[in-house]
Amino acid sequence: MMKKMIYILSVVILLPLVFTGCSDKTKESNSERKVFRTLAEIKKSKKVTIGVFSDKKPFSYVDEKGNYQGYDVYFANRLAKDLGVKIEYVPTDAVNRAEYLKTGKVDIILANFTVTKERKEVVDFSLPYQKVSLGVISPDNALIKDVKDLKGKTLIVAKGTTADTYFTKNYPEIKLLKFEQYQEIFQALLDKRGAAIATDNTEALAWVAKNKNFSVSIKSLGDVDTIAAAISKGNKTLLDFINEDIKKLAKEQFFHKDFEATLKPVYKNSATPNDIVVEGGEVK
After folding, report:
1. Do the domain assignments include residue 29?
2. Rounded to an integer, what distance in angstroms lies between the CA atom of residue 153 and that of residue 139?
3. Angstrom distances, CA of residue 100 to CA of 143, 165, 272
4. 21 part of a folded domain
5. Are residues 217 and 243 in the same domain?
6. Which pLDDT tens digit goes with each residue over 210-233?
7. Structural domain count, the chain
8. pTM for this predicted structure
9. Alpha-carbon distance 225 to 131, whole Å?
10. Euclidean distance between CA atoms 36 and 263, whole angstroms
């Protein structure tokens, strides 16, 4: 009888430990589970989700009919066609592009995403399809021709962008006024809430072309960077497909066609394809 009681007590004591162990393994398994969808999974679902800006004309924006348009969107449409799937656009902000990939909210980000060393630690980038550097926009009656001219003044930037990072790192003494949305930074300049805007020079040239009394007073600042598609870290099958597609598209000069259709009407004579376009992933 005593032995039986000891056995029962032993089982009662051990059971919670067994279930706790199983629970820990389940948690470990769930934490290691990937959030991205592989190339095969995307094709099987017959749909790809792509994160783009809704307010960064002429790169990705929503037009008056509610349709997505722009340089990035032109590429996104072709990518979906080559994948053989339908496309679902998901609007994103600069600050949450990487987060949307990490949480599986989108399969791909095509949102004027500049490749940086820091970003490579959290997402995987495809071959580049565009080149860019920073530019500064300021009013014609108070031009900012040099970074030194910003001393004691406020510079407007979008949060989480290359401009934000560049000035925070290299010029911490310059006061930055930050906004989530791109349309907000331009409105802030029009409202005279800052002396200038720092953003991609490609976007700066486009905005100035449609807004009188402003100029891209600094046309190139910092290094010449590249823009690429971003994919969840480790999603090799999807990354390989995009890279191969970019290489194939070079044969038909796809991104030159993209420029002609989406950027030339905006830039007119202020920029040429060679200023912006990267074909086949090779920067020249």
Report:
1. no
2. 14
3. 37, 20, 33
4. no
5. no
6. 899 999 999 889 888 999 999 999
7. 2
8. 0.75
9. 6
10. 32
Q: For residues 186 and 62, what is the distance between their CA atoms, to the nearest angstrom?
A: 17
Residue 91, beta-bridge partner list: 52
The C-alpha atoms of residue 72 and residue 214 are separated, in whole angstroms, by 26
| CB-based contacts of 185, cutoff 8 Å, min separation 6 | 156, 157, 158, 179, 197, 199
Please state, in angstroms and rounded to a whole number, the distance separating the CA atoms of residues 278 and 128. Answer: 7
Domain carrying residue 97? 39-132+225-276
Residue 252 lies in a domain: yes
Radius of gyration of the chain (CA): 24
Residue 99: how many CB atoms within 10 A of its CB?
A: 15
| CA–CA gap between residue 76 and residue 85 (Å, rounded) | 11
Per-residue model confidence as pLDDT tens digits over 162-193: 999 999 999 999 999 999 988 899 999 999 99
Q: Hey, which bits of the chain come out as E strands? A: 47-52, 55-56, 60-62, 68-69, 86-91, 108-109, 123-139, 154-158, 175-179, 196-200, 214-232
125 and 108 share a domain?
yes
Q: Which among 136, 161, 158 is positioned nearest to 146, based on CA atoms?
A: 136
C-alpha 129/C-alpha 202 separation (Å) is 13
Query: What pLDDT band is residue 30 in, cutting at 50, 70 and 90?
Result: very low
Peptide linkage before 58 cis (omega within 30 of 0): yes
